[in-house]
Amino acid sequence: MAKPEDRLIIETTKGRVTVGMRPDLAPNHVARIKELARAGFYDGVPFHRVIEGFMAQTGDPTGTGTGGSGQKLRAEFNTEPHTRGAVSMARAQNPDSADSQFFICFDEATFLDRQYTVWGRVIEGMENVDKITRGEPPRNPDKILSVRVAADAA
User: What predicted TM-score, i.e. pTM, was given to this entire model?
Assistant: First the structure.
């Protein structure tokens, strides 16, 4: 189990999801996710793109899929596979365009391997991810209520 500093607690409208973050794979992405979580950036943000059998995407406060924090990250592509429960950064065409948006894989999506930065994996609450309302965008999107680093939640 990831130590509290490397666990992310995501409270959603469907329940709690705990992510074990992987600073060994993507140290800059994990550091940025922690920074955004600690600033309350993700609180109230919708799941704006949710595709059955693929993934649930969030992290855009505008809910349109075009917004972010305004700080781009250099890619940290790695060999961690995009399988059920993988948490990876969304990006535009430029490999170094990831910002605040991320997605959680419902199923295997290994066609994304080494092209998107996996920075964590759901370690508890995947059944709650499975309940997130589908759509691009969903008519009534589920939301992140809060995101906290477990070390801060004690």
Answer: 0.97
